[in-house]
Design a protein that fits this description.
Helix content: over 70%
Largest sheet: none
Shape: globular
Structural class: mainly alpha
Number of helices: 8
Strand content: under 5%
Distance between the termini: 33 Å
Number of domains: 1
Radius of gyration: 18 Å
Order of helices and strands: HHHHHHHH
Number of strands: 0
């Protein structure tokens, strides 16, 4: 593997680390503001990537990037206690939504910076920022898929009537992780439609 390839590998891993850090921080700060002290006690109100990286999830990303294999990476999930919320169902939904929303806002900031300051940037920096925009938007759409343990399942649960939500959560608890693995490894074409297509459309709008 040549030096340029290693630069690309490093760029992908750094982008993942930054996007995951912002995503998990958003979950933690939202839960904290809504009355749950658990994330603060666990040191998650932080923009230090080390506080948010899951060793296995990060290793999976490195393997994916280096080998080019299909896979999935993840950060360390923010632990939340809904009993501390004034409105547990609504507030859990807001905490879940904060992650994808943070990635959208991060992408917006990066896109504006890229479009505004591109003439003063090096080609490699522009490439990195564009890649970051892609990764943030991709991460947002991926996390909005309503399959546990993704944020989309908690958002949908908060929108459903209480009894339906309970049955849905029970189903997701049993089958969610298996469904997610099937989606990533067995039918990646579906993932392309759910994530790839909308990501490309949104990024093209953001970057012009």
């Amino acid at each position: 593997m040549g030096p340029m390839d290693w630069n690309f590998v490093f760029m992908q891993i750094l982008a993942f680390v930054l996007c995951i850090t912002v995503h998990e921080f958003a979950h933690a700060i939202t839960a904290d503001r809504l009355g749950d002290p658990t994330p603060r006690r666990q040191g998650r109100i932080s923009l230090n990537p080390i506080d948010h990286l899951d060793p296995l999830g990060t290793l999976m990303v490195i393997l994916m990037v280096v080998t080019g294999a299909r896979g999935i990476g993840w950060g360390k999930a923010v632990q939340v206690n809904p009993a501390n919320f004034r409105h547990p169902r609504r507030d859990m939904m807001l905490v879940a939504a904060a992650g994808p929303l943070s990635n959208l806002l991060f992408a917006l900031v990066l896109a504006v910076a890229t479009r505004t300051f591109a003439p003063q940037m090096t080609p490699s920096l522009i490439e990195f920022l564009i890649f970051m925009v892609y990764m943030n938007i991709g991460l947002m759409f991926f996390n909005l898929i309503p399959i546990a343990p993704l944020d989309g399942s908690k958002i949908l649960s908060g929108l459903l009537p209480a009894e339906t939500a309970y049955r849905y959560e029970l189903t997701m608890f049993r089958f969610g992780p298996i469904l997610l693995l099937l989606l990533v490894f067995v039918v990646p074409g579906v993932l392309g439609v759910l994530v790839g297509v909308p990501t490309t459309l949104v990024v093209s709008q953001l970057l012009g």
